[in-house]
């Protein structure tokens, strides 16, 4: 699966609906999210984790304060995160989680004409088939490196990280 985009709505510092589109090019397939400290990079990564698994990274501050304050003052009381994924067979999926007074988690299949149909299986198993929750910290990381294993030189150790994933001591 390829991550095409993430849309956050009234999630922490993101007021209204904000979308980041990822590179889907076969040759230029890296998207870098770069900004000053305190402008929402970690919030974006946590929105992705929360959308997929309903959890947040351990360093996430004030986990009970997710609804954007400006939206709350306007009387809005829910927030949403949607992730659009494309399969190798070119099928488009939307994974969405909502919180606040609307709390749900669902996956939709989006047809070529733009119609949404509920995924005919378990949304949790669908997400787990893309990226198992236990491995998510190795791929969705808040930049602090807490979930990554490093060697004696401070470099990320792929072999030690894989051993950790597999549960080897």
Describe this structure in words.
The two termini are 31 Å apart. The longest helix has 13 residues, at 41-53. This protein has 5 helices and 6 strands, in the order E-E-H-H-E-E-E-E-H-H-H. The model has no long low-confidence stretch (mean pLDDT 86). A 6-stranded antiparallel sheet has the order 2-1-3-4-5-6. The radius of gyration is 17 Å and the shape is globular. The chain is an alpha+beta fold and 169 residues long.
The beta-strand count equals: 6
Residue ranges: pLDDT <50 for 5 or more in a row? none
Protein structure class:
alpha+beta
Question: For this entry, what is the oligomeric state of its chains?
Answer: single chain
Characterize the biggest β-sheet. 6 strands, antiparallel
- Read across the widest sheet, the strand sequence of neighbours is 2-1-3-4-5-6
Relative helix content: 10-25%
Q: What does the radius of gyration come to?
A: 17 Å
Question: Shape from CA axes?
Answer: globular
Mean pLDDT: 86
| C-alpha end-to-end distance | 31 Å
What's the helix count?
5
Order of helices and strands: EEHHEEEEHHH
Fraction in beta strands? 25-35%
Give short descriptive properties of this protein.
six-stranded antiparallel β-sheet; 169 residues; globular; 6 strands; alpha+beta; 5 helices
């Amino acid at each position: 699966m390829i991550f095409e985009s993430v849309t956050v709505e009234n999630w922490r510092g993101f007021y209204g609906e904000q979308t980041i589109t990822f590179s889907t090019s076969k040759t230029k397939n890296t998207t870098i999210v770069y900004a000053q400290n305190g402008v929402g990079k970690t919030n974006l990564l946590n929105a992705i984790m929360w959308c997929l698994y309903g959890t947040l990274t351990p360093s996430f501050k004030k986990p009970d304060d997710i609804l954007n304050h400006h939206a709350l003052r306007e009387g809005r009381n829910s927030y949403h995160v949607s992730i659009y994924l494309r399969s190798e067979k070119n099928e488009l999926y939307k994974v969405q989680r909502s919180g606040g007074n609307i709390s749900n988690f669902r996956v939709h299949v989006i047809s070529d004409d733009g119609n949404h149909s509920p995924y005919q299986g378990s949304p949790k198993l669908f997400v787990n088939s893309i990226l198992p929750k236990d491995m998510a910290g190795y791929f969705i990381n808040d930049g602090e490196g807490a979930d990554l294993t490093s060697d004696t030189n401070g470099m990320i150790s792929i072999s030690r990280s894989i051993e950790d994933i597999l549960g080897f001591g």
